[in-house]
Input
Amino acid sequence: MPNIQLTFPDGTTKEFPHGVTALEVAKSIGPRLAAEALAARVNGRLVDLSSRLEESAPIQLITPNSPEGLEIYRHSSAHLLAAAVLELYPDAHPGVGPATDSGFFYDFYRPQPFTEADLAKIELKMQELVRADLPYERVTFGKDEGLKLFEEKGEFLKCELIREKAEPVFSAYRTGKFLDFCRGPHIPSTGRIKAVKLLSVAGARWKGDEHSHPLQRIYGTAFFNQKELDAHLHQLEEAKRRDHRRLGKDLDLFSIQDEAGPGLVFWHPKGGIIRKEIEDFLRAELLARGYELVYTPHVARLDLWKTSGHANFYRENMFTTMALDDAEYQLKPMNCPGHIMIYKSSRRSYRELPMRLAEFGTVYRYERSGVMHGLLRVRGFTQDDAHIFCAPEQIEDEIAACVEFAKLVLTTFGFERYEVELSVRDAAEPAKYAGAAEDWERAEGALEKTLSRMGIPFKRMEGEAVFYGPKIDVKLIDAIGRPWQLSTVQFDFSLPVRFGLEYVGADGRAHTPLMVHRALLGSVERFFGVLIEHYAGAFPLWLAPVQAVVLPVSEKHLDYARSVAGELRAAKFRAHLDDRNEKLNARVRDAQLQKVPLMLVVGDREAQGHGVAVRRRDTGDAGFRPLAELMGWMRELIDTRAVKW
Ligand SMILES: [Zn+2]
Ligand SMILES: [Zn+2]
Output
């Protein structure tokens, strides 16, 4: 057999004997690479290091630094999990076991539930198998022969997959007692797994079908070293501590009640006051920035949603229609048609543009009952929505103003880091998109130019735009490094045409305005959930539902305590008097648990000096302060919406 030519990512080509393995290729480059390599990409296809190369091709060795490396490593860890489970529980039948964004899982059919103690045992067994350094051995079968083998082993789930998906000759991988119908690739052997941890077990269904076999899904995660795993586990702990569903209950901020239905949020008084502060801040900024505030109905005739196109392309996300005596009605999933109705209500001149219509618009979208998650995934929510109608020459200024506004929102709530994505069309498929090519060019150009001019780094997402226009997405990074989708600035070349929107230009002729949808918080509910987790429930003074709690040392200081609380309230602070007949320590602890920023203790000395003994939520004792001085300081913190104080 003649030698083959392999071309490396840097463009160099080397000659190798026919049938050389990818591992041998790595070794020829250096022992370090051979030790690090996990798999290889040959001719665009990912393969095992043990695979034999039989023709000339481009080759790239996959290491922990390659984007694909972690996924292969975690998928291999899922095999390790299954191998350990089969050693310990021969009655378990494996389903599927993919890598996920943050780890991996494996599904098993087994009548008896896995317990926490079982997970610990499985993890020990996994470590034992790592030490044994078992290879991920690739074997191939003819379909009938392979199927028979899996049938003999009683692996009915795997058999179903083989019947459905296997080629006439298919591959399987053996790791210890576990044989998996799998395309691969995998890492060479279990000894390469350096840091792996099982996290939890949860119920699942075969193929996600609720009528199919009940399965147990064991979740785990794996990293290339212990340090990264520890950091991840710490982040999971932090996320648990900050979980907005738990804090929402502990701090009495909101509830979601089965009697009313999943995904529908009840804002309790303490959550309500935070929402009011958020909305007040935004409304004042909207007005200062030339937006006009509007209100639109929550339901409208289905015909309106036919004109907008939602009844067609957005149907699956809408609640079903209601038949009234005059027509069918639709609960609104979006605010756009409402704002368009206002634009359309009279003949518009170029002098009225840009027209910026804003609304805290509550919308309802259908989500399956099983997928709801606290405030993050709901069926009813309020968008801080606005639509900008403008002339083409105004678009750059409008985009810049939107991005500035989004930045202000981020910094106001104390988010220091964010990521920006620019989604543009796939230039190769112009037929997929609504609107004229020149409009797209202008819009994409405006978005890109604005971001560059403002010095904002962004990721350009080719082909990610929706059919009706390009957009900018802003993702904030929270206190523990998690990204959350926040603001969107979205062009729309479709709706103005569908609704026949016009304005009379300076030339006296009718023109179609450009339309931009923009939401800064996105969903107020979701943003609130993110805020709760970002602050771990400890809101800055301007947002805190109770800003100060007044604590009389004993009953004889009650009158003075009342007057302090009264003065604070008269000065528009949210002050609460805790006059319960409890020990001072217990009341301080309760205020601390409720994350009240300021605890104001009053006794003889404070009454004499017309002041309070300040205890801060974060740093504890802050000593005596005259009441007037304290109020001046609080006012300053609140008016500047200080996040750090
Ligand atoms: Zn596999
Ligand atoms: Zn819209």
